[in-house]
Design brief:
It is a single chain. Helix 2 crosses helix 3. 10% of the residues are buried. This protein is an alpha/beta fold. The protein is elongated, with a radius of gyration of 26 Å. It has three helices and four strands. Strand 1 and strand 2 form a beta hairpin.
């Protein structure tokens, strides 16, 4: 009886289907989670025709004040959690010690009481911030 020798496949044939499956799953995960990461605090900004910030490449410190008057800071462990005035002053002072000259912006909801925004500005003054910008939306045309 004659034995037939079977040829082994060369090692150059790599099955890429599992890699494509993993890549597609990762793509779907990133597409779903990316919008959730950029949400931040929901604030309806007042509309005003103002000049844009001169250097948009540098990300400023942003103090957000929502409609209920709660304050948020875009740095730290939980940027989506409200913070009190003492924590705001402490955190901003710490950031400015490491990065002097960093700009600070205030995003106040258009329905929040004016006194609440002024109170936030006083806290920023206590943190020795030389200049503060107010964030607005361009008016609808």
């Amino acid at each position: 009886m004659a034995r037939h020798r079977t040829r082994k496949k060369p090692m150059a044939d790599i099955n890429v289907v599992p890699y494509i499956d993993v890549m597609l799953v990762m793509l779907v995960i990133f597409m779903v989670t990316a919008p959730l990461l950029t949400q931040g605090v929901s604030v309806e900004l007042p509309q005003a025709d103002a000049e844009p910030v001169p250097d948009p490449d540098k990300e400023p410190l942003v103090v957000s004040i929502d409609a209920a008057g709660r304050m948020y800071l875009n740095v730290g462990d939980a940027p989506d959690s409200p913070i009190d005035g003492d924590t705001l002053v402490k955190n901003i002072s710490a950031v400015l010690r490491r990065q002097p000259g960093k700009s600070v912006m205030v995003r106040g909801d258009h329905t929040v009481d004016y006194g609440t925004v002024v109170a936030a500005l006083v806290l920023l003054q206590q943190a020795e911030i030389p200049k503060v910008g107010l964030v607005t939306e361009p008016p609808e045309r």
